[in-house]
Structures
1.
Amino acid sequence: MSESVTITDNRTGETIEIPIENGGISAKAFSKHMPGLWFYDPGFTATASTSSAITYLDGGNGVLRYRGYPIEQLAEKSTFLEVCYLLINGELPSATEMETWRHDITHHTFIHENMRKRFTEGFHHDAHPMGMLTSAIAALSTFYPEAKDISDPENRKKQINRLISKVPTLAAMAYRASIGMPFVYPDNTLNYAENFLSMMWRVAEPVYEADPVLSKALDTLLILHADHEQNCSTTTMRVVGSSHSDPYVSAAAATSALYGPRHGGANEQVIHMLNEIGSYENIPAFIEKVKQGDVRLMGFGHRVYKAYDPRATIVKEQADKVFAVTGRSPLLDIALKLEEIALEDDYFKSRNLYPNVDFYTGLIYQSMGIPMDMFTVMFTIGRMPGWLSHWEELMVEEQRIARPRQLYTGPDERDYVDIASR
Ligand code: ACO
């Protein structure tokens, strides 16, 4: 059996054979022989836009691995900072490498005072933290103009470190500004998750001591969100990066893509949905509305997973641990019942709709005291190393600028008509 695909152009009878490599066929090999004939794939449902050695995802079997390591093992045994290193460098760090990495990240957590004062003060009092964070990430580009030299690997490394270190600071800054609380400076004696929680909640205490169960749960959620191959925001990072924009504005574009309710905004929508359902007896009527196509069951469904999202299983375990500390969320029962019904109902079964990572994360964040409009901000902190590892891969491989084609469906040529005659 030949590992290839044969395509015949029935207009001309021309036949071409294209080899199958890494599970795909080269569109370039096709277009060379049949110029002017494009693959039509809105939403990229059947297109591999790149090759990548970072994340393996088998949606049919619910498998997710970063650099070959199963997500279940990383969630249980690793830390978010170690996973960041793994994603970016391709290997787990040695003890010395880990120490250097921790030091490098810890020593880039502070932001320029102008950012904290003038920049933040410019926002309206009820500005959404995600809008503030997106702008703040883009604004970093103006503080580090040397980031534009994307051809120097050492320089790229420095910007990557800065982004991973500073994003929690910017995220907490956006939150504190949105509730009129003073900025809390990073505490570099704390670990990544503890430091973030300190910047969120510290008031007058000399050192903020986060509950270890909650900081561990946060760290695990960040691991689960760290990468997910060519999702909407990562593809955005690659598309913008391919024009050789600097990593800050590229990451700001990726953050914007994540903001949408179909992507990173879904966990916020889950809580809105659970609040709207309100109580147990309203569930059947809500499910009916979903099946009529009036609303979507938020936190369900995924473009790639056609089985249970492996991250959702881990999130559910974390939820139990967090609720043991914070008390059980009253919305949990509604969520569990929705899941139970959906897993048995033909509408959901026939469309392979299972809970995705966002179905339970909102409930965890909410019970930790993190407000709803910060949920996507939390996702941004987690996804940053994924975006950056894809950006670095893009830079090393020197891929061409992203520039797809279209199928034109507009009018044929026509003559301009003067406004008085229209
Ligand atoms: N609730 C009800 N029906 C759904 C849902 C849902 N959440 N998701 C998909 N469907 C149905 C669609 O109506 C469609 O039915 P049809 O064939 O009868 O028309 C079918 O399932 C296929 O749906 P598509 O929209 O074609 O699937 P697509 O791959 O384009 O969308 C998406 C994936 C955006 C995630 C979708 O499932 C959705 O909107 N889910 C809710 C939002 C959500 O949870 N997003 C988070 C995704 S994970 C992440 O970004 C971290």
2.
Amino acid sequence: MKTGRVFSGARPTGRQHLGNYLGAIKNYVALQDDYDCLYCIVDLHALTTLDEFEDLRQNCAEMALDWLAAGIEPAETIIFVQSQVPQVTELHTILSMFTPLGKLTDLPTFKEKVAQHPHNVNYGLVGYPVLMTADITLYRAGIVPVGVDQASHLEFAREIVRTFNYRTRSQALIEPQMKNTEFPKVLGTDGVQKMSKSLNNDIELAATPEVTLQRVMSMVTDPQRARRTDPGRPEVCNVFTLHQTFSPAEAPSIERECRAAGIGCVDCKKILSQNINAGLAPFRARRAELAQNSRLVWDILDEGARRARVLADATLQDVKAAVGLP
Ligand code: ADP
């Protein structure tokens, strides 16, 4: 028995990495047991910061393949691309009339984006949280899984909904609830920054075993461990952090051996790479199978969008009625 509707969106960043998997996708898969879920590839949001557009479509497909191979079940979950439900742009326009501009430009995330993309401070960037509110409310999602760092965004969405319902004296929109979830922050191969494609410190889920080995071998370990004979400190080593996920049975002995300098970083990384490859083998096999039929992923996304549009139309009808649009 499902107990509510969940919405979550992620930008089409193409092939997903271990950070995306442990920090988002794994949770997406688990939520399907208890909720009706909509998972959206937010390509319109991506346009706010893109300089080049030619990879966008392919990145949507690559990301969807990873989601599907990881266990997102399209028979129950609606998985779709944001722009294929154009109703979201209509709701975005209507909601923008209920959103004070000063609040948008005051948001720390807006200021961050301005600092990151000073050459391209576009109108879409300012309206990003409004579009996000439209994403969630268009499908009457009651629940949005968020980590602590995203909580302020959802609070803002809730405010827009309250303002809209209050000013239109309607209940056309549902105020979404946060589902606080602890998302682990997965560090990249540099051992310092968050794993991210743009920092080139990532390990792709769909990488070959050889590339995975190369990437793991490039990982930065305990910087104080200069020689093989020096004892290591697993608590500051990202290789060990990943062992805890991918080598649960061996992690205690690896920790002991590292502290006693019984195992060197090279061997420790080889074991990690083997275990990542073994752990991801079923995922990679499923992905390769899905990718064989190049239409399949788009058929699934098109069907997801079709189902999403049905939900969207119903909401939009209520919203338009609330503001007196014909
Ligand atoms: P977005 O702009 O949608 O956040 P990202 O590719 O940065 O796109 O992230 C997609 C999802 O994966 C988000 O939920 C994000 O929190 C999660 N994620 C990305 N990188 C990491 C990481 N290194 N550790 C944990 N979670 C991550």
